[in-house]
Amino acid sequence: MARRSAARRAPRPPATLARLRETIVQCRRCARLVAHRERTATEKRPAYRNDPYWGRPVPGFGDPQARLLVIGLAPAAHGGNRTGRMFTGDRSGDWLYGTLHRFGFANQPTSTHRADGLALHDAYVTAAARCAPPDNKPTRDELDACRPFLADELRLLRRVRVVIALGRIAFDAFWAVHAASGHAVPRPRPSFAHGAAYRVGALTVLASYHPSQRNTQTGMLTAAMFDAVFAAARQSVDQ
User: Fold this and answer.
1) Average pLDDT of the chain?
2) In this structure, what are the phi and psi dihedrals at residue 123, rounded to the nearest 5 degrees?
3) 3-state secondary structure labels for all residues of the chain
């Protein structure tokens, strides 16, 4: 009788987005992030002291047939970490979903909680990291641990034609996944700049400043600048 190998087999990649979401929600790979997200969910912000907090990794959200993929940094401690949905319940979400609505990718301009009726059309929203990090700064190791989730999303979202990366970390995460998946990366390697656009195979990759309060309140990112990126995405999707 043949001996069973003592080595563990690598887990099979999730076959559907639903299975992938289940896998993401159960993740406990990064001790620092687990401690922070759960502590935040217990301590809460005074304005939300009566709200139940999600306090777990936050999966992607949107249309499984999406041609537009939006990649952010990570869930906000009192946004996605509270509500359980990407860019939901905070000012960054107000900017993002309001803009998606203006360009026909969302049925409403607001995203306040998971049962608010929001639906995305031809768009999917995800992030480089799935847990709220302290000070919004995931470490390199934490980003590396999360990267397979983004790779699985890109594999399962077979109709994606346009990627918008919100911020440098999201931008770098996309190119890392793209290269690791065996696809060619332009040389010199694409550099991040707001409004930059790159064509790689069948994909158009657009870069934008992240709609964080720091960027929007200082004027680093204006509504016109953000709209211009999504107008370009809309045009590319519709070609």
Assistant:
1) 94
2) -145, 150
3) CCCCCCCCCCCCCCCCHHHHHHHHHCCCCCHHHHHHHHHHHHHCCHHHCCCCCCCCCCCCEECCCCCEEEEECCCCCCCHHHHCCCCCCCHHHHHHHHHHHHCCCECCCCCCCCCCCCCECCEEEEECCCCCCHHHCCCHHHHHHHHHHHHHHHHHCCCCCEEEEECHHHHHHHHHHHHHCCCCCCCCCCCCCCCCEEEECCEEEEEECCCCHHHHHHCCCCHHHHHHHHHHHHHHHHC
Residue 68 has pLDDT above 90, yes or no: yes
- Residue 131 phi/psi, 5-degree rounding, is -115, 150
Which CATH fold topology does 17-238 show?
Uracil-DNA Glycosylase, subunit E (3.40.470)
Q: Strand 68-72 vs strand 203-208: parallel, antiparallel, or unpaired?
A: unpaired
Sign of CA dihedral 33, 35, 41, 44: negative
Pick from 1-10, 70-79, 194-203, 219-228: least confident: 1-10
| DSSP 8-state code for residue 106 | B
Q: Which two tokens stand for residue 177?
A: 């996944």
What one-character DSSP code corresponds to residue 51?
S
**Alpha carbon distance 216, 218 (integer Å):** 6
Read off the amino acid at residue 174: F
pLDDT tens digit string along 87-145? 999 999 999 999 999 999 999 999 999 999 999 999 999 999 999 999 999 999 999 99
Q: Which two tokens stand for residue 158?
A: 């077979």
Of residues 166, 91, 85, the one with CA closest to residue 120: 85
